[in-house]
Structure formats: structure tokens, C-alpha cells
């Protein structure tokens, strides 16, 4: 061995690509490592956080080779914050909750008032207990009764009305008395309005008239045949509007109908003069409302 090489390492030129002159058994030296190209990087903008994946180097590519663009990396590029999104305000709906609540409250108040008024009226009515008046027929007579060609006759009737209430006054209006034969009007009479005090009794005398009545002509024969037997049975129908009042309450006017059936008028010796056959006792009438 050459003493010049003793204690010295391989020279700087020993890594060159020239073949070694120290023998054929030695392998050629590997090529020198090339330095990677210098690349310039720009600092990321403020607020940019690329994440750990952005700091990882691309692997599997030789130096100087531009890798294929990574879509995931491109997806993570920095996006500037978008401006505020402006949209049209929602349409303003006029809620009527307050109005509905007011209407419901108003209706409830009305219901309460009407209920209280009804209850008070019912209590007062039960306390005063209004009763319908009493109707009776005392007498009925006729003169010059004729059914030959037209219906004619001079009638006289007397009946009694009694207010049996001890706390209420009765007011009678639209008073009318009809004399009927088999539901056909024979004579009609009207009575002026009047008032009956508590427990008061009123005797009413009327003179029903056949003038202006619409008695069917085909029933005149039946009426004449019945007269030929010596008597004819009539019905007195009395109608009026009745209202009761006191110092604290009053009732609404109601139609009261009194039917007095079985009024048998007996004619003397087949003449046109007849009178009620009742034995001197008043005939009680049935009341309807």
C-alpha cells in the first residue's frame, strides 16, 4: 500500500463518476445526490388554517415533477367569508287574536246577562205565580132569528171575567167575542180594552151581530133544520191579549183563547126568539194559549 494514502480517507474526487484505477474488483461509486430545486412559498393569509393535511408533503413523486392536482386539497383552499345575505322580510300578518278575544268576552258577557235576566224573571214568575183569568158565560139570547134567505138575528150575551191573581194586575186588549156554529161564525162582537185589578171581577155585556159575517149559504139549511127541532147548540169563542203586571215585574202579552161549548139556545114555539138553557148556572169556559 502506498504510504501516501495511509491515514487519509477517500478524497473528494473519489465520488466522481470516473472509474477507479485501483482494480477491477471494485464497484463504481453511486452518483452524487442532486439538491432539490429551491421553491418559493408565500405565507398564507391571516386567518387561514390549512389543517394538518396541507403541511404533509406530496409523496410518491420524484423531485422536479409537478404532481397531479389534488381535488381534496383544492377544496380546502381559503374562501373569503361571504357578505351578509339579505332577503325580503316575511309578510306581516295582521293577527286578530285580540279582536277575537274581545268578541268572545263580549258574547260571554251577553250570555251571562241573558241567563241572569232569565233566572231572575223565572224566580219572580214563580214567586208571583201568575194565573190565567176565569171566563164564564152567564146568558145568551136572540130575537128575530132567521135562516130563510140570509142569516139574521139580534143577539145578546153576557159573560164574566175574573182576575184570580192576588199580586198581579191584568191588562186585556184586542177583546173579541164570536158566536160559532160548527166552526162557522154566526155573529161577532168587540169589547174595548180594560184592566182588571187584583181579584177583580168584570161583567161584560155584548151584542153580537151577524152583519158582515161569512156564514156559508149551504149551511143555512142545516141551521134551519136544527132550529125546527126546537133548539140550536152554539159555541162562544172569546179571544184577547192578556198581560200581567206588578210593581216589580210585568209579563209579555199573550193571546188567551176561551172556548165556551154547549150553549144550547131553546126557541119558543118555533119562533125566532130563543134563550140559553143553563138552569141559571154560569157555563165555565176552557182556556187555551
Automatic annotation (TrEMBL):
Highest taxon above the source species: Eukaryota
Segments for region (Disordered): 1-31
Transmembrane segments: 105-128
Localisation per UniProt entry: Membrane
Keyword Membrane recorded: yes
GO cellular component: plasma membrane
One GO biological process term: defense response to other organism
The entry's keywords: Membrane, Transmembrane, Transmembrane helix
UniProt-recorded name of the protein: Late embryogenesis abundant protein LEA-2 subgroup domain-containing protein
